[in-house]
Specification:
Length: about 180
C-alpha cells in the first residue's frame, strides 16, 4: 500500500560558498553595453542631423536622458556581475544571480546530458567563456553561466564528464553484481 507521510521538520539548506565570476567579467559586460549604445547614439545623432524638428523636440531629453541611461546600465552591470557566483559541489553545480530578484539554480550533475562552451569575439579577447549545461529532456540550456574564464569552463566540463563516467561505471558495477 502507498503511504505518503507529511514532513514537519524540513532540513536546513546547507550554506553554499559561491566563487565570484572572473575579474574581467565586469569589463565584458560594460563592453557589451557599449556595443549596444554606440550604434544607438549614432542613429540618434543622424536623426537629429537630418531631421531638424526631431532634433528640436528631443534634444534636451537626449542630452540629459542618454547619459543617465548609460550610467545606470553600467552601474547595474557592475553590481549584477558582483552578485553572481558559481559553486561546484560533489553532486551538483549551483549558480546565483540577481540583484532585486535573486535566483539560485542548482543542477544535479547526474541530470547533465550536454555541455557547451561559447566564446564570442570580446570573450576570446578577454580569455572568458560562457558555459551552457543541458539536462535530460530540455531543448534549451537549463543553466547558463557567463563571465567564467575559459580555463574554468574547461575544468568544469571535465569535472562533469568525469562525474558522468564515474556514475556510469558505478551503475555497471552494481548491475554486474
Amino acid at each position: 500500500m502507498f503511504n505518503n507521510q507529511q514532513i514537519m521538520d524540513l532540513p536546513e539548506h546547507s550554506v553554499i560558498n559561491f566563487k565570484p565570476l572572473a575579474d574581467k567579467a565586469v569589463l565584458h559586460t560594460q563592453l557589451n553595453w557599449l556595443v549596444f549604445y554606440i550604434p544607438l547614439i549614432a542613429v540618434l545623432v543622424a536623426l537629429c542631423y537630418f531631421n531638424e524638428t526631431f532634433a528640436n523636440n528631443t534634444q534636451t531629453y537626449l542630452l540629459i536622458g542618454m547619459p543617465i541611461l548609460i550610467v545606470i546600465s553600467m552601474v547595474y552591470g557592475v553590481v549584477s556581475i558582483k552578485q553572481q557566483g558559481v559553486a561546484i559541489r560533489t553532486h551538483d553545480i549551483t549558480f546565483r544571480k540577481g540583484i532585486i530578484w535573486q535566483q539560485i539554480t542548482i543542477l544535479p550533475l547526474a541530470r547533465v546530458q550536454h555541455i557547451e562552451i561559447h566564446r564570442g569575439p570580446i570573450e576570446r579577447k578577454l580569455d572568458l567563456a560562457s558555459l551552457k549545461l543541458y539536462s535530460a529532456g530540455g531543448m534549451s540550456a537549463d543553466l547558463q553561466i557567463s563571465g567564467l574564464t575559459h580555463t574554468d569552463c574547461k575544468n568544469i566540463r571535465q569535472f562533469v564528464q568525469d562525474y558522468r563516467q564515474d556514475e556510469s561505471t558505478m551503475q555497471a558495477t552494481t548491475t554486474d553484481e
